[in-house]
Design brief:
By secondary structure, the chain is an alpha+beta fold. It folds into 2 domains: about 1-170, Jelly Rolls; about 185-285, Homeodomain-like (Arc Repressor Mutant, subunit A), CATH 1.10.10. The protein is about 40% helix and about 20% strand. It is built from 10 helices and 9 strands. Helix 4 runs parallel beside helix 7 (about 230-250).
Length: about 290
């Protein structure tokens, strides 16, 4: 298993970690919940919930996991059905911890229900995150879209990493280990960094990307396939799709604006592209 292998510090620099949201209170944040329960199917990111009131249930891969007050539910990052009692209150933290090839740091063995009293540091280290995010990104589902200065960013990353240490220990106590990605060619990682910094609304020129890392286009694509099991073009396309999905989750996001941000001149072209990748139109996804 990769998690048991020795990794260089340089390997860990390839791990992408950031926070989506964190709040402590009734479900929905800015969306009032009515009825007996509410379900969501559009979220597939890594997350954890400490239930304070009500209950929550997730379903995936033919299995069901239910958490009640005083329990943590550590969610598997995959397509799943999330169902909450209407009166549910919880401490919710959603994050990404992912390798360049798309594999997730914590995945195998989840979802998992934990007794909060057995791992008190999980709550203790999560509370400061909820407090800090409330100052810079209240009522949002993606903190990356909010303004933040360097101090705020560094503080948020520090708080998240401190919490992830506790999560790692809690999962290890239940024989759930992290995954690792080893030995990625430095030229591939340099190309990944350039792609990550590239405007999502501008075409990605593979020849220029390859030249920037002192490789031929053919050699770069071959190394990308070897180390990341995908091409530079497909990696860039995934970034664009993830951006569209995350932006459209925001209540005030307009489809036309997202279309323009991704470089589509005509809205129907964006809708066709989006449906090709998701099976839904942008409007259906938002609804």
């Amino acid at each position: 298993m990769e998690a048991m292998r020795k990794m260089l510090y340089n390997d860990w620099l390839n791990l992408n970690i950031h926070l989506f949201w964190c709040y402590d209170g009734p479900i929905g944040q800015d969306k009032p919940i009515t009825g007996k329960s509410v379900s969501y199917t559009e979220y597939s990111n890594s997350g954890a919930w400490l239930i304070r009131k009500g209950w929550v249930k997730v379903e995936h891969n033919g299995r069901t996991f239910t958490a009640k007050p005083g329990q943590w539910l550590i969610v598997k990052p995959c397509q799943l059905i999330q169902t909450f009692a209407a009166d549910t209150e919880m401490l919710s933290i959603s994050f990404e911890a992912r390798w360049p090839d798309g594999s997730i740091l914590f995945d195998e063995g989840l979802s998992l229900v934990l007794e909060a009293e057995d791992f008190p540091a999980l709550e203790r280290k999560a509370k400061p995150i909820a407090k800090a995010i409330k100052k810079i990104a209240p009522n949002t589902w993606d903190a990356r879209t909010c303004d933040a200065d360097l101090k705020s960013f560094l503080k948020m990353q520090s708080l998240l990493c401190n919490w992830l240490i506790e999560l790692r220990d809690a999962l290890a106590a239940n024989n759930i280990l992290y995954s690792g990605k080893f030995g990625i060619d430095e030229r591939v990682m340099q190309a990944v960094r350039l792609i990550n910094a590239h405007s999502l609304g501008e075409p990605l020129m593979i020849d220029e990307l390859a030249s920037a890392v002192c490789l031929s286009s053919i050699h770069l694509v071959r190394l990308f396939r070897q180390d990341l099991q995908q091409t530079p073009a497909s990696y860039f396309e995934k970034l664009r799709l993830e951006y569209a999905l995350n932006r459209l989750k925001l209540p005030d996001a307009r489809i036309k604006e997202v279309s323009i941000e991704l470089g589509f001149t005509y809205l129907p072209h964006f809708s066709k592209w989006f449906k090709k990748h998701t099976g839904k139109s942008p409007r259906e996804y938002k609804q």
